Structures are given as structure tokens and as C-alpha cells.
Amino acid sequence: MTGTTTDTFGAEIMSRIDDLAALSESPDGLTRRYLTPEHRQANDLVGRWMGDAGMTVRQDAVGNIIGRYEGVSEGLPAVLIGSHLDTVVMAGKFDGMLGVITGIACVGELNRRGRRLPFAVEVVGFGDEEGVRFQSGYLGSHALAGNFEPALLERRDADDISLAEAMTAFGLDPARVGDAARRAPDVLAYLELHIEQGPVLESQGLPVGVVTTIAGATRLAVSLTGEAGHAGTVPMTLRHDALAAAAECILAVERVCAESPNLVGTVGQIAAEPGASNVIPGSVRFTVDLRAAEDPHRTTALDELMVLLEAAAKRRGVAIEIEKVHEAASVPCDAQLSDLIAGAIERSGWRVQRLPSGAGHDAAAMAGLAPVGMVFVRCEGGVSHNPAESITAADAEAGARVLFQVLNDFPGGS
Amino acid sequence: MTGTTTDTFGAEIMSRIDDLAALSESPDGLTRRYLTPEHRQANDLVGRWMGDAGMTVRQDAVGNIIGRYEGVSEGLPAVLIGSHLDTVVMAGKFDGMLGVITGIACVGELNRRGRRLPFAVEVVGFGDEEGVRFQSGYLGSHALAGNFEPALLERRDADDISLAEAMTAFGLDPARVGDAARRAPDVLAYLELHIEQGPVLESQGLPVGVVTTIAGATRLAVSLTGEAGHAGTVPMTLRHDALAAAAECILAVERVCAESPNLVGTVGQIAAEPGASNVIPGSVRFTVDLRAAEDPHRTTALDELMVLLEAAAKRRGVAIEIEKVHEAASVPCDAQLSDLIAGAIERSGWRVQRLPSGAGHDAAAMAGLAPVGMVFVRCEGGVSHNPAESITAADAEAGARVLFQVLNDFPGGS
């Protein structure tokens, strides 16, 4: 990745980021959920870029878009480079997309140079990582890694559409999701470049870093059922207010997580029914997201939290149901791949910063199939999951350069 | 109200209650907001019943449906009997509707007997009392009482439709809302029959009671603006979580109101943005509803609450805006009308129970125009604003009987 073609590399990546960010379900901010018309448009656009970079393009059985650049001979095992194309609600434009676009840029560069490696390179744009629509993350990478959970097909989104129905509407066959699974011998490694979404690299003045571990996470769906009633006539002492109970739970999440510097906990979604200003809420649903780089920190906090939530509900005469909708142990990145990445960073002239990832990534799901390695790119203020998410073109280019170097340094690659 | 016609009176009222309850925006529970197609259907149905009872029917400039039964000569001042036809979300079927249907039943009985009183009787079905759609209650009764606030025309509902736009879509002219106002000399009194929505009459074993005062109320719309961010990467100590701040505010409302037995406070609506399980909420909006029979209890609590809310927001680095969207002082019912009601109850053979109303009613708005009197009807368990809201046909008939007697006892009426 030297010479005139690379000088505008960062600019091309940034331009493609903007093109993808234009595909949004809402006009006033980027929202692109799994299996929506905008997901279709994103797959089409990314597929065109993959084709332009010399790849053969297909959409797999779960809706991931995959480009394949053959090695020195056809059908060789592949190094996969990927990240996701779905977003949170009112998202930033780099989270996920940067890894897909950078992967395509690397293959485009191989293609421009007419280079074939002793392995194939595939770039994957996963359809669902954030889990916004069906409250279950990594649907795309779990399916590719062969760990898709068929029971999820019955799960319903906020519009009461099941995952199976959404797949059918998208043109997929829910009975054939298993076809998305890849065989381990065909996948040499999985590499993912992603914005850090935290403040460490910025504080160190570094454009890129090597990820050591991906934090484990637990996601809960909590339902509280109290008693609706007239806001003017039911004395405070006779109330079973589901929202007041939820408020107590939210503060318990905050309190438990404040006890450990390595733990974070978030209530991101809440809905109170019936939802009128003059009616006592009879039921409330909310989510809890708990994460820690060290699994024992998370599981201990979870146990403590369950006790607090159940006690708060019981004291208020409110019924509580706590469903664990997602759980992922922390995932260490592969030591050899991490050393390759570190070497590439060093050769580019930067100090090597190793850091854990507080956020989950497709790499965590892909670790079930192949060794994984991750490159982090600095982002402004550590801000992510927010329209203010921002990186520089120079940092995008730095990340792409490291990724390209890793491909070249990969055993058998140089 | 004696003889064979009245024996099935309660049954007819209950049957009409069910007919009105079938006009709902949602199939799984009764919701009928102001200026919706279901409001139109309710006005049409109630207008037919009014016509059947011998009334001339018109819809006024704000969407109230009004039937008029002339007195011994045309154009006499009128006694108004009214209540509202709109509902909360997932409502009970008696709140509001019972007063309108009972009023029609009384006029129907006069009509069957061929009786004309020395005053006209009008029955009003108010279009908006609950304020669910535009977060401002009593729109119908305020307009009729000549106290409609024109600035409200710009207020927008959850679908971003302004009140003016909704009126136009309903076939009303927002520029002519003032035409709904009645002249004080034309209105002798306003009577309202309503379910108690509380537990007092049931605990006393009485079907009906006389309302002494309608509680004052303050409704707030609170907006919190913190900072959205990734649920996995922002340390707890660096967060400005708008939902955690809201949780603290909700518990403050509860705590302040628990300090006084005469005070109730409710957070009934809440919305957190962006609203994904893995994103720290950047903004939250919620409502606060405060009520007390004695105004100083409410205003003191409001002052205390404002201080607590602002302190909680400040400590968390979250911006707070508190808008007072509704405020109504407590309203005493007219002493002479209340004595008329008490006399009618006594003559029916029941002990007279006088009690304040914790809930607001159109009578509170109508007190700006005429003396008001209210009859309460017992409801099961005090439950209201809830699909479980329930009364017996016998109690409905008891209420109608009292109302009919008051009309007959009204000065000049017998």
C-alpha cells in the first residue's frame, strides 16, 4: 500500500462511509436495522464495491454480503476480513462500516497490483451485529460461525414481525439459515478493523491499536407488572407503580456497576404502559446491558443485581420477570494474529498499544470458528453509538495500511 | 323516573356503554383520543341517541357534541349535563361516557313523559378531557366555558400533528374555536355524573355520593438531555445518562408525595432516546402529574420537587427543562347544587356521603362559566383508567335517578 494509489485511500474510505450513511431508515439520523429495505440497499452498494475490487459477490443464507478474492489458485482456504453493516438507532457512521470498507480497500489494492496470495481473502459485511431489531446480537456472525440458534426464528421485533417472517420478506429461507455456516478448514483467520469506541488511543496519541480481549456481555429483558390506575385517585400507599419500580431497578444497575471500575451497565430501552400522563403505569419493560473484560466481574455483578431487582419488585408488590436474552463470555484475541498486527503497527512507525475492547464485536462470534485478531482505530472523544462519532481520513488510512500489511505478513502471504 | 320504563334503565345505560366502548383506536383495549376517527364515530353515535331522546343535535366549534331539549318555551337558559367522550390509553369504559349516557337517559325520560321544564336541558359530550393526545386536558370544556387558550393550536401530538391541523382534518375551523364559548346568562348550571374512580363509596356501601371539591392538578413535561454513548465503552464515572437521571426524578416524585396523605404524584409517560439496549440514553422525556384537594399541599410539593429534579440533573451533568403544561386550582362545587344532589340522594333512601374528587373533571373547567355540581357513582375497587373499571347496572340506574331528581328539584323545575 504505497505509491500514488494509496495517497487518496483515506479519502475514498471516508467517501464510501458517507455513501453508506445515506442509507437510513430515518431521515434525521442513521438507523439501519437487520433485514430492512435499507439493509438490502447497503448489501447492494457494498456488493458493487466488492465487485469493483475484483471479488465474486454473494449474499449468504442469513443476509450477510460476502466478496471473495481468490488466491494463487481457486478454492484455497480464506482469511476473512469483516465487520457489520447494521447500526444502532441514531448511530454513528463508522461503527461496523469502517471495517467492511477498509477490507474492500485492501482487496482492491491487491487487485490493482494484480497480486494473488497463497490463500483467498474474503470480505464479509455482517447483516446483524447490534441486535437492535430482534434483541439478539451477532445474528450474522453467529450464523457464519455455525452457531445460529434456531429458536431465535420465533423472536419478534417491535412491530410483532418474527425473525423468520422478516427473513422471508428479505428473500431468505428461514429453513436454510444453517447454509450460512462455514467449515473451519476453509477459514484460516478472521480479522476485524473497528473504531475503538472508547478514549484510550486518543489519550495515547495513537491512530491504531491491537485488541487483546473482547469484553463479555449479558443482556437482560426485564418486565415489571404492577397495577394501572387513575393518577388522581389512588393513594400513594396503595399503588403498585411499575415505573417507580423500574426507576429503582435502573438506579440499582448504576450502583452495582459503580462498584467496579471494570464493569459497565446500561438501561438503554424502556417502555411504560399504558403510557398516559394521568395513568399510573401498570407495566414496564426495560433492557439491561452488563459488560466486563473479566467474566467473574460480570457474573458476580449479575447475581447481585438479580437480588436487588427482585427485592425492589417484591417490596412494591410488582411482579418481575427477568429474561437473559444474550450472554457472551469474554473472548481473547489470538496471540499470533495479535503479534502480526502489532508488527504491522510497529513497521508503520507507531508505538504498539494493546487494549481490551469494552464493546462486543463480530470477532467474538467468529472466535468459535477461527482465530481472530482485531485492529482498533482512534475515534474522537471515544464517542460512539451517537451521530457525533468521528474519525479522521488519516486514521482510516492508517488502519487500512495495517490491515493490508497483516495480509502480506500472514503465514504464506509474503 | 318511576314506572315500567325505568326498570330497564340501568340495562340500557350499560348497553350503550358497551356500544361506545367498541369505538376504539386499538383492538385490544379502549383508546379513543380527541379528533380521531373514533371520536367522530362516538359523536355520531351519541348524536343519534340524543336525537332519539328528543333533542336537537349539533357539534360545536371544538368538536363537542351537544343535544338540546327545549323547556316550556324555546330559547330558555339551560341546565347543562355533561362529561367527556375521550379516554386514556387502554381505558375503562365508564370514565366520562357514563355521565353523557346518563344525561341522555334523563332527557329521554322527560321526553317520554312529554314533560317540558321551565328551562332547557342540554347534554354535552366533551371531545377532550383526558388530554392524552395534546398533553392538555379539558380542551372541550375550556372552549365551551370560553377559556380556550389559542396558543394550544400549535401544540403537537406524538405524530407531530398540531392541534390546528387535527381540527382541520376533523372538519373544524381552528380560527373559529372561540365560537364554542357559551354566554353565562344562557347557562344556569352544570351537572356532571361520574364514576368515583376511588374507593370511598364502595367502602361505605353506597351507590352514589356528592362531590365537595375537585382536586387541583399540575402537569409537567420534563426533558433531560445527557450524552448518548456506547454501552460497552464509556466508564460509569464519565456518563451523563439521561435515563438514570430520570429514574432519580421518578423516585423523587414518589418520595415527595409520600410525605402528605392528601397528595398524589405520578410519572405516567416516559420515552428514552435513542432507545437501543446497547446505547446509553442521551435524552429522556417524561410527564409528572401532581394533585391535591388543597392547593397549598400541591404548590408546596411542586416547589420541593423542582428543587430535587434540578439538583439531580445538575449533579449528573444532564440538562433539564421543566415545562408546566397544565395547572388547575382546586374547584369547590356549588353549595346549593350540592344540597340539591344531597336531597335527591336522601329522598332515594341512601345516606348522603360528601367526598372530594382526586381526579379532575370537566366540571372544574365549567366552574368558570356556571355553578357546578357533581354526582359520584361507586366503582368496583376504586379502579379506573384501567380496562378492569367496573360498575353495576343498579348503581348506574341509581345515579341516573339522582340526576333526574335534581333536574326536577332544580329551582323552577318542579
Keywords for this entry:
homodimer; 414 residues; alpha+beta; Aminopeptidase; Alpha-Beta Plaits; 2 domains; nine-stranded mixed sheet; five-stranded antiparallel sheet; 16 strands; 34% helix; 22% strand; globular; disordered N terminus
Summarize model confidence as the mean pLDDT of chain A: 94
CATH level 3 topology of the largest domain in chain A:
Aminopeptidase
Please report which band the strand proportion of chain A falls in: under 5%, 5-15%, 15-25%, 25-35%, 35-45% or over 45%.
Answer: 15-25%
The CATH architecture of the largest domain in chain A is 3-Layer(aba) Sandwich
Could you list the spans of chain A in which at least 5 consecutive residues all have pLDDT below 50?
Answer: 1-6
Oligomeric nature of the chains: homodimer
Helical region count of chain A? Answer: 12
Query: Helix- and strand-based class of chain A?
Result: alpha+beta
CATH superfamily of the largest domain in chain A: Zn peptidases
Overall geometry of chain A: globular
Estimated helix fraction of chain A: 25-40%
CATH class of the largest domain in chain A: Alpha Beta
What is the straight-line distance between the termini of chain A? 14 Å
Largest Cβ-defined interface: A-B, 70 and 72 residues
Q: What is the β-strand count of chain A?
A: 16
What is the ordering of alpha helices and beta strands of chain A?
A: HHHEEEHEHHEHEEEHEEEEHEEHEHEH
Rounded to the nearest angstrom, the radius of gyration of chain A is 22 Å
Largest sheet report of chain A: 9 strands, mixed
Give the count of structural domains of chain A: 2
